[in-house]
Specification:
By secondary structure, the protein is α+β, with helices and mostly antiparallel strands. Helices cover 28% and strands 13% of the residues. The protein has one domain. The longest helix is centred in the middle third of the chain and has 9 residues.
Length: 61
């Protein structure tokens, strides 16, 4: 699997990536794969739970 117009790899989360998600949603779809470097190698995320909380993707109290 390689990066292309429907696949993007990012090694960390930045709020500006919301633009990528909107672009995918307004086009033919796509995948933003977090935790991979520019070569496609898995590098993990530094604060994955914090990222999920920030994006409100986990259940709150």
């Amino acid at each position: 699997m390689k990066e292309n117009q429907n696949t993007e790899w990012k090694s960390s989360w930045r709020d500006e990536y919301l633009k990528w998600l909107c672009g995918f949603a307004n086009a033919q779809g796509g995948v933003l794969d977090l935790g991979r470097n520019d070569h496609g190698q898995v590098v993990g995320l530094e604060d994955d739970q914090g990222m999920l909380e920030k994006l409100r993707l986990i259940e709150g109290p």
